[in-house]
């Protein structure tokens, strides 16, 4: 049977099983695999190892991921890929373990492991595949982006001439459709908007142009 440990979280105790397979049928085999990894002697060079984790099920976020994979060994860094717009999980993550040998065994044990009806894809990444910025921002606490700020940024973002023409054309078509519906209801209302053939381009900073000319 799996034993339990507890950790402090917001002044309340949260009980987390030390070994949990999330699949009752494979619990015994899973515990043996974890025990073998714990007994495995770490590399004397203290070389760290990184794994790629894919096909992550919904609801399996950083806290749950760290609690689950900590049973194999010490996790030094963890980053779950999230959408910049919505903050939702993209379904894959990178986990760095203190020892390379542990990371290799975790990748071997957890690859094609069934978790919440999904088969995890776990792969060990050699040094040449570990990007220097792979764990950028991993230590920063995640906060969901504010919907109003996201909408404002999208509205205020720079749009090319072609993009502006498409937006204006869509608005004109919408207005004409509205006029047609009102006319069918007996309301005399029409709108005739001409789409300009060209739109003003983005304004450039005069100081930048003057500096370029003077140089």
From TrEMBL:
<dbReference type="InterPro" id="IPR000504">
    <property type="entry name" value="RRM_dom"/>
</dbReference>
<dbReference type="Pfam" id="PF00076">
    <property type="entry name" value="RRM_1"/>
</dbReference>
<feature type="domain" description="RRM">
    <location>
        <begin position="49"/>
        <end position="127"/>
    </location>
</feature>
<dbReference type="GO" id="GO:0005730">
    <property type="term" value="C:nucleolus"/>
</dbReference>
<keyword id="KW-0539">Nucleus</keyword>
<dbReference type="InterPro" id="IPR012677">
    <property type="entry name" value="Nucleotide-bd_a/b_plait_sf"/>
</dbReference>
<dbReference type="InterPro" id="IPR035979">
    <property type="entry name" value="RBD_domain_sf"/>
</dbReference>
<keyword id="KW-0694">RNA-binding</keyword>
<protein>
    <recommendedName>
        <fullName>RRM domain-containing protein</fullName>
    </recommendedName>
</protein>
<dbReference type="GO" id="GO:0003723">
    <property type="term" value="F:RNA binding"/>
</dbReference>
